TrEMBL record:
Family stated for the protein in its record: Belongs to the fatty acyl-CoA reductase family.
A GO MF label: alcohol-forming very long-chain fatty acyl-CoA reductase activity
Domain of life according to the entry: Eukaryota
Species of origin: Anisodus tanguticus
Stated name of the protein: Fatty acyl-CoA reductase
Function statement: Catalyzes the reduction of fatty acyl-CoA to fatty alcohols.
EC number(s) stated in the UniProt entry for this protein: 1.2.1.84
Enzyme class: oxidoreductase
Domain Thioester reductase (TE) span(s) in chain numbering: 17-318
Amino acid sequence: MELTSVLKFLENRTILVTGATGFLAKIFVEKILRVQPNVKKLYLLLRAADDKSAMQRFNTEVVAKDLFKVLREKCGANFTTFVSQRTKIVPGDISCENLGVNDSNLLEEMWREVDIVVNLAATTNFDERYDVALGINTFGARHVLNFAKKCNKLKVLLHVSTAYVCGEKEGLMLEKSYNMGETLNGTLGLDIEAEKKVMDKTLKQLEAENASEKAITTTMKELGLERARKYGWPNTYVFTKTMGEMLMGKLKEDVPLVIVRPTIITSTFKEPFPGWVEGIRTIDSLVVGYGKGRITCFPGNPKTILDVIPADMVVNAMIVSMMAHADQRGSETIYQIGSSLSNPLEVINFRDYGFNYFTKNPWINKVDGKPIVVGKVTVLSSMDSFQRYLALHYLLPLKGLEIVNTACCQYFQGKYSELYRKIKFVIRLIDLYGPYLFFQTVFDDLNAEKLRMAAKDIGIETEVFYFDPKTINWEDYFMKIHLPGVVRYVFK
């Protein structure tokens, strides 16, 4: 790799960013604009029908966010002008050829001007419809690659994937690529084009049967899980992301390709300020459920390592890595960005941080105005013990309440509905995230460590583009940054 000043590398660059309204994309865009105001242009691709609706989405879902308050204060009255001069909002869709960009003049302009392509568009829903996940995570990745090949000045294509493409493998997960058709359980026959045919055939059959939209959605979700688990992946999300990596690696030709695989992304550590987060992100489902009194137990090994990494560190790693591998024709480099190897956090610590925080700062119930009292979550060491706990403490009382409610002419319907929703919520979370609560994988981040050390040795802006998880004190981070951020930006 060749390292130089990152700020100098970014100067006068033209960057295409897909998925521009996403969580990481917003942080990436804000960082570039804030630290290198002399960037030439950011083409920001987002899903929209036309220019007007695209601009409306950008204004309401991106620059209006608190995330941009530091940049807004820095620019003052010139903020809107500054942003408009350095960004071009592009309506499109990566599930389509040419990224769904219909303006031929704009296409030619982008192919002529773009230096760097950053693919952040994805659906991260664990049980997404198979047709949707294939369109965005798998074939969308190929469309982005094909677009990048047409960029005359392309220096690097950076694709953001996920560390959990490894499935549920135990041990040290190396920063290795997946060959076309490779599976996690040894099952033969994975063919990406064939997967599309299976999906298309199922959709056509449903349409021929005049199935309702709800029925189609349910069937497509079940199909995704079925196909993923057939080949060894736990959910549709990681399966389709893996196939996207396979396509890029196979078809890249001379494109310099960098794949960044973050682990569980959490709120910002330092920049633009600590604690910014958006949406319910993986472990924050547990945080919200616990803080609101819905979760009193969950299955998991208390000693399981929970691999989390702040979002600003992921973005910084992205920026440094795309600079390090610019112009390396035909190369493919994978960076796993996480903390499990160098600064491990155990499930039991995460539980205790949550208990300590919500004991001192209880969430106020909006129905009765009373603080919600939380207890220490019971961590059950096996799925069997969880099932027994659930049956004894929830399902049996629910059945009893159902009988009493029926006998009393639905007098206890409100209480019954509340308990039913709570149980359904817990079961849903465990179904989606259960495999990760017993996760025995540690992610090797040797490439990221080499990149950090090289940057440090050369003395390039390591204070600006920090991404070393060893610098994080987890107790301070969760108690003073992440949990307050989740309460502020996610709790409703």
